[in-house]
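Consider this today:
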Amino acid sequence: MIVAPDSFKGSLSAPAAAAAIARGIRQASPDVEVLEMPVSDGGDSLLEVLEPAGFRPVTIETSGPIGAPLDTSYAVRGDTAVVELAAASGLNQLPAGHLAPLDATSYGTGVLMRDAIERGARRIVLGLGGSACTDGGAGLLEGLGAELRDLNGGQLGRGGGVLRVLSSVDLRPCLRLCDGVEVVLACDVDNPLFGPTGAATVFGPQKGASRDDIRALEAGLHQWVECCETAHPVAGALAERPGAGAAGGTAFGALAGCGATIARGIDLVLELLDFDRALETASLVVTGEGRLDTQSLRGKAPAGVAAHARAAGVPVVAVAGRVDLRQTEARTLGLAATYALTDLCADQQQAMSDAADLLTQVGARIGRESGSYS
């Protein structure tokens, strides 16, 4: 049996959730072999879930989203490096209670990528999620060597708020650095860079952006793309590509300056974990996340896990803090059953604080009922 949940945001990391579910299964069915294989869609817990698959951490000094020195890590296995944007440029790296919608930058993530490439990585998997910035990936490319100049020819400051005064961009240094390196973006959204469904309008408020901030960020992103077009004639088309607006437009920067491709985050993670091989001997898969709802239908981690299990002919059930899917929708995902922690504890806040114990209880139930899913 494989236990492969994503994180339960606000409660448990993916590995902690997997451990709690597996503990219950083993208590109820001690003879069942349980493989804990927590997953991520490219955001929370990405590096942590890859450690058991042989990825080792490399820790360096970079800078956080508002420029403070920061020691953080990426992961390496062979010539593949996995970089988690949130580890350097995420909301979780801002001082408590401090949001910086105009000033936050993706620069620190570019420094991580540069270090990985200079140490010999030929494939970079960049996990996009939890970003603090809306700079269109300008900081990322600067961290990789790009030069951004203002109207006076001076070096441009960092953050999405200054892109309005960007005058010129030289992408050649980062294009040279990334030559021969495959850069793949783990992305679970399909938003373009700008417009009513773009990075500033949709995600800016989550990063503390006011209406005036959103207008400023939108104008900056347009200026950023216009300047990029002098070095990359198809930059405008790249900005319209689904997913280009991910992580405050960091995806666009990587597309334009690194020749990156976009892939569904959960599929990349399952590939790195060699999940399909594990399925060959599995009798049941247990997946889950904090909330199962209509967003889950759009390719989030449990949907990806379920799709791979279904293709292998392995039944799959899901556990969530809260389940807002109808039975027909759950069946669309290929789920044989769903379990909600709120069925055991009606108080949602209490369910979040007691998530580990509740997941163990659900795991025990799954252990007892596992034979009914085959």
Q: What stands out?
A: The CA atoms of residues 62 and 92 lie 15 Å apart. The chain has a mean pLDDT of 93. Residues 211-228 form the longest helix (18 residues).
